Amino acid sequence: MLLDTASLYFRAYFGVPESVRAPDGTPVNAVRGLLDFIARLVQDHHPDDLVACMDFDWRPQWRVDLIPSYKAHRVAEEAAEGSPEPDEEEIPDTLSPQVPIIEEVLDALGIARIGAAGYEADDVIGTLAGRARGPVDIVTGDRDLFQLIDDRRGIRILYPLKGVGTLQVTDEALLREKYGVDGPGYVDLALLRGDPSDGLPGVPGIGEKTAAKLLDAYGDLAGIITAAEDPSSKVTPAQRKRLLEARPYLAVAPTVVKVATDVPVPDDADPALPSEPADPERLDALAAQWGLGGSLHRLLLTLRR
Q: What is the pTM of this model?
């Protein structure tokens, strides 16, 4: 089981009241919510291995170089030119202090936490899923990862609809039913449609339904472009104009949208789900300092079963 950790703690933050606080008054709603999420996932799905995949760079420069608008609206503060540090992401003031707490608690529990410099969690997930020798469940609220779905290899997406108690188990059949594409085809659908939340412009006038129809008719992005360049094809004049005008974007968008699967992730982390904390004393101290209470207790009970 691979967790898109930021996706889940954002959901926890907005799903658990901010009145959930540590003894010193610090909000810990995202911390406790994430622990409850993990406990429920382990209880319901019994993974052998579990990895919390991290964004070591939420907006990699190599993606920005290709599409400058990529996540640009979410930048709170730009890094100094030449700095190895990424731009600072705009996140709620009461969430950002909780992220280091989440990292410390996961480490004390012994839950593997993996990221890679210059890459997003999506890329770490793509790499680990590609290396896996058995079935993989990816837990994420990010539809971009639908591109990794592969029934043959047993890779599916558990997409939260409400908390993590209600998950949409997304496989190739559901993908075809909802979007008319398979996993790899979702990349072409996404880049044609665009995604305002990621700053991807898409092709103006080509929405999700039109993109799906074009992919059904011409197979993939290359086939659509070939058809647009062919005056005798059945591409409408308006679509042809829009697609041809968008060729500079379409030339680079696949690299930006496609999840990297060759990320240099560390191989020293043990992904096995722990039955006991890796550092009990540290975990006790964190539990007392941050008032993790029932959330941590429930997770520890679930891990021991």
A: 0.92
